[in-house]
Every structure is written in structure tokens, then in C-alpha cells.
Amino acid sequence: MRKKLNGIEVARGVAALLVVFYHISRLFEQNFGFFPLSKFTEIGHSGVDFFFVLSGFIIYFIHRKDIGHKSQLKSYILKRLVRIFPLFWVVFLLHLALIPFVASTDFPTISSGLLQLLLFPIDKKELVIGVSWTLQYEMLFYLLFALLIFNRVIGRAVFIFWFLILVVQFIGVHNFSIPLVSSAFCFQFMAGIVAAYVVSTVSIQHLKKFFYVGISILLITWWAELSNLLNGFGKNSRLLYGIAFSLVVIGVVAIENGKNMEYPKIWLILGKSSYSIYLTHLLFGGVYYKILDLIEVLAVLPALISLVIVVLLTVVSGVIFSHIVELPVTRYLRSKLISNSK
Asked: Residues 297-327, buried b or exposed e (16+ Cβ, 10 A)?
């Protein structure tokens, strides 16, 4: 099994585009009263579900050999911190600087700002970066996986207990809620881990059909949501999206296994830049939307064309931001911190 899976990189780009189309379309819906692509872009919120599955997959796939090896814990923690925080802090400061011009939120209090900088769970309404609530889950995932690296037995016990909490929530035996821990999103992270375990331990040459099964479940779930038969933001949809995307991931890896797959370079670039695109798309999208509105382009062009223009500018800006900020900073910090920690 190759360490680098281009199919997973492409999947990250797809997830980012789903979220971008969803949020930019909501800008049009809020101001014009309709979605430029009817309600099809409304299902773009499932890109977040895809990200959570991919997160679980990537963490286990990359660090599976570190499980039970306490000596690898420091390196793991540094890699995760470098991955998340530097870019997040830069984008956070950009949002603060532009709040008076493009953001709908107010300046945070000192205590709220500090909690946000550390990605502690707080009310979504207080967030400077609207999508940063998902990073709170990421930090929880990283912390609990760190327990597996610290001690295999303790880590497994915690994950089993965590899984039981989610089962109780889904069944509805007890109506309780533990912030972050009992969320249905956690199931998706676990589904990603299971997908990584499968492709890492099972002969995957016969698992290509998983891709088509996963796509079928995904399409059915999207249809059910668009037909108002399913609440796309409810726990049942989280379960279905988690299953669908985890099967898709297994299928993608199985199809790519042993082959020199040639993916369009643009998709690999989008995947590599997906974190920057995700963190900055509300900022850039809001700026470009306002500019086009001020110069009255939105009043002249069809909404669909305007949507495509805003999305394109937003994604390109995210890619550029990744290459001039995220990637250089990440490489520098990894060379200074992680290399020296070994």
C-alpha cells in the first residue's frame, strides 16, 4: 500500500468544493431569496461530513504504526498542532481586521477570543471564523487518538466507551448530551478510522465495488434530503453520510491500489490546498460577493453565472493563500519543531 494516496487528496478537494458552493449559494439565497442552482447546492453541507470521514481515515492511515508507541506521541502532537493552528491563527487575524467591512459578527471579548484561538468549544454565534466549530471536533479527535499512541489498551477502552455513548445517543435510550463527544459527527470520524483499518489490513483488490455502493447510498441520501424526507442536519443523516463516504473512501483506495492513477493536476492542487480553501472561503467569498454587488455585476448577470464567478475567485484565492502562507509556514515549522523532536 502506497503511503501517498492521490485519490484521498482529490477527495479532500471535492469536500472543499462542496462546502464552498454551499456557503456561497447561501449568500445568494439570503440576498435574492433563492439558490442559483435550485436546492442542489444545499446538499453541499455534506462536504463537512466528508471532511470528518477523511480526517479519521488520514489520522489512522498515517499514524497506525504509532499506536502503542509512547515515544511517537510528541512527534504526533507536534504534527497535528502545526497542521491546524498556524494557518488558523493567520486567518483568524484576517477576519478580525476585516470585521468592520465584510463580517456579520462583532469583535469577540478577550476571553472569547482566547478560547477561539485555542479552539476550545464555545457557542457558534461567537465564532469569528464561522467554520472553526469543525476544528473543535478535530482537536477532540486528535486528543483521543493520542491516547491510542500513549497506551493501546487505554486508548481502545476510551474509544469503545466513546462508541457506546454514540450508540446510546442514536438509539435514544437516554436523552443526554456531552459537548462534542456525543455528537453524531464523531461517528463519521470513527467511520473514517474503520475505512483506514480495512484498507490497511484487508486484501482490498475485491473492494472496488465499495465505491459504487457508497456513491449509491450518497445519492439516495442527497435525494431524500432534497425531497424533504430526511433532515440533512439530523443524526440519521450524519450516520448515512458517514457510511456512504467511508465506503467511497475504501473504494477509491481499492481502485487506486497498485495502479499509477493519473488524476487531473487541478484536483490534486485543490486537495493540497483544501484546508486553506476551507478556512478562507467565507472571508474571500464575502469580499468578492460585496465587490460584485457594489459594481452592480450581480444585478446584470444571471445568478448562476455570478455564483460561478464568486466560487471561482474564492477557490483560486484559497489556493494562492495555501501556496504563499500555509505550505511555506507548515514546511518551516515542521523542519524546526518536528525534525528536532526526533
From this structure: ebeeeebeebbbbbbebbbebbbebbeebbe
